[in-house]
Write a structure and sequence with these properties.
The chain is 76% helix and 0% strand. It is an all-alpha fold and 347 residues long. The protein is globular. The C terminus is likely disordered. GO terms for molecular function: magnesium ion transmembrane transporter activity. Keywords: Membrane, Signal, Transmembrane, Transmembrane helix. It is a multi-pass membrane protein.
């Protein structure tokens, strides 16, 4: 197997692992609503953590054997893989609007990443790392605080998923920086020299995992997953363009095409969001209609008046009071009278 084929295979398996982890996260969020961020006692949540970790390792392996322009767009297939996998394994089928939004987001992201050129391996200085870390944690905290004030579950989930994507994207930037420094020094620096960057990576990865877990609560699978999948590489690419000297291919034409791909990806996210908002709008409309149907038998005592016409026969006087709850006691009196009459009949 050639290096390029191995890279494609690793990238596809990585996308499948990410999709499986997202499906498990969504199911955990649906079953443990009281612990939206880190259900540590839930075994399935640790399985999702393992799947996401496996996807990250496979993605790094794919980058080691293949070019970034090929591996990064294949990662966008996570959304496309997640929908049929959810339909098969957890019986969660997506509608036509969800499929259109997922395909639009994946195609736009793949085109955007394929147009992003690479530059020579560069690293961030100490001041740049501190500035990027502070800005990132500030942006993630701001998105989190805004999400807490939003009452609509879908909008809150999109904000949390965006914060998770930002955290994951900047964690990738710091990972690249550490890898460049490690390679340039030949491994002589050791982990102690990179300890602040490693702690930043760990903090951002943990924050991204908890925020993405909370994003799946009450918003389904497609919309939060698409938001995280798009926000992660877009943020990393933006930092690469601003700080690492990366650029779009084909000059002004490539830049225009990249902007068009960004619009397509954003349109897919908007379509997924509106699809979830429409689904949540239909549920409240349907829920009030269910109780009247369920309460129709108790509330409509038409069967109760039916004995009343039967009670119109004056011959059976005890039958008339039977439909009325208050007159059930008098209905028992004739039975007591018959009991008092029977002893004379025995004479």
């Amino acid at each position: 197997m050639s290096a390029l084929a191995l890279s494609v295979l690793l990238a596809l398996v990585s996308a499948v692992a990410y999709a499986a982890g997202a499906i498990v996260q969504e199911r955990v969020a649906a079953t443990t609503p009281s612990r939206p961020y880190a259900p540590l006692r839930h075994a399935a949540w640790w399985a999702a953590v393992a799947l996401n970790g496996l996807g990250a390792l496979l993605h790094v392996g794919a980058l080691a054997y293949g070019p970034l322009s090929l591996v990064q767009p294949l990662g966008a297939l996570t959304i496309v893989f997640a929908l049929p996998m959810a339909a098969v394994f957890v019986r969660r089928r997506a509608g036509a609007a969800a499929w259109r939004g997922a395909i639009m987001a994946s195609a736009g992201l793949a085109g955007l990443l394929s147009l992003t050129g690479t530059a020579d391996a560069q690293s961030l200085g100490g001041g740049e790392r501190l500035a990027v870390a502070l800005v990132t944690f500030g942006a993630v905290a701001a998105l989190f605080l805004v999400a807490q004030r939003v009452h609509r579950a879908v909008v809150r989930s999109i904000l949390l998923a965006t914060a998770a994507g930002v955290a994951f994207g900047i964690a990738s930037v710091f990972t690249k920086t550490v890898a460049v420094d490690w390679t340039a020094a030949g491994g002589l620096d050791g982990p102690n020299a990179q300890l602040p960057s490693l702690l930043t990576i760990a903090g951002l990865a943990a924050a991204g995992m908890m925020l993405s877990q909370a994003a799946y609560r009450g918003a389904g699978l497609a919309a939060p997953l698409a938001t995280v999948t798009v926000a992660n590489p877009v943020v990393a690419a933006a930092v690469g363009i601003m700080l690492f000297g990366e650029h779009f291919r084909y000059g002004a034409t490539g830049t225009a095409l990249a902007l068009g791909c960004g619009v397509v990806a954003a349109g897919g996210l908007i379509l997924l969001t509106t699809e979830r908002l429409g689904a949540h709008a239909e549920r409240p409309a349907g829920l009030p209609g269910v109780p009247p149907q369920a309460s129709a038998p108790p509330m409509s005592p038409q069967p109760a008046p039916q004995p009343a016409p039967a009670a119109g026969a004056t011959r059976t006087a005890p039958a008339a009071p039977q439909p009325r709850p208050r007159t059930r006691r008098p209905a028992a009196r004739p039975h007591t009278r018959t009991q008092t009459v029977t002893p004379p009949a025995l004479r």
